[in-house]
Amino acid sequence: MTKTLTLLLHRGPYESEYADLAVNFALKAKEKGYNVNLWLYGDGVWTSHVKRQKDYPNVGERLRKALKEGVNVKICARCAEARDLVKGDIIEGIPMVGLFDFTDWLEESDKVLTFMR
Amino acid sequence: MATPEDCGDTCLIDTKKLLEKKGAVSAETGSDLLILLTEGTYGTFDGPFNAIQIGNAVLALEKNATIVLLDEGAYFGVKNQDPSEIELLNNTDYIQDFLDLGGRILALEPSLKKRGLLDDDLIEGIKLIDHSQLVQEIEKHKASLTF
Q1: ipTM score assigned to the predicted complex
Q2: A103 to B146: CB separation less than 8 angstroms, yes or no
């Protein structure tokens, strides 16, 4: 039976390695056969805002890859609203949702990991 | 644009509605979610607030939630504080709602002592634990989140 892993990212891109770690971890877990959920919370929502090409490590590009590979990604609507992030600002295919979507993920998960600090 | 109006009380947990159902959650059988809060009220904004919002969402589903205050998180449980005067969030109402809804808040005693805090400094209902009890809490919960 496929195991479910839920990751909570609470730090923004380029302020620390945590956004990169969370997205890379999600990709690797997916590759290993896990059902992977990635919840972007607090400043973690900014990861969905990295859309343009860059000549340095690009976490947004890997987040798009994660979506393509079937990682479930959602962002906290309240956290987005607090930062004036609107649907048009973020990578396509990531829904802005309320906290009960996250608690649903908690319920179905075999493991939960937090990425912050 | 997503606004609190779009997602109603799923954006910000409406604890007033939940308190009407007070008593639905058992305070002593907590085993669903453990939140380890390592950030205090001061110097941070989102971490403690987001942590307790998840806690209240879990309680809203009539599941059990426990918050452990450790490291700088010890300051989160101090009573009679109002950081809104320095333009930080005042989470004390959310803390009280969490307790009233049957959530458990535990504080790691060594973290308190290192910061010159005493049991009496904390909001009523917060219990002290030591390191071995922290291990027991981690063991008995299905999932944990760290903020």
Answers
A1: 0.85
A2: no
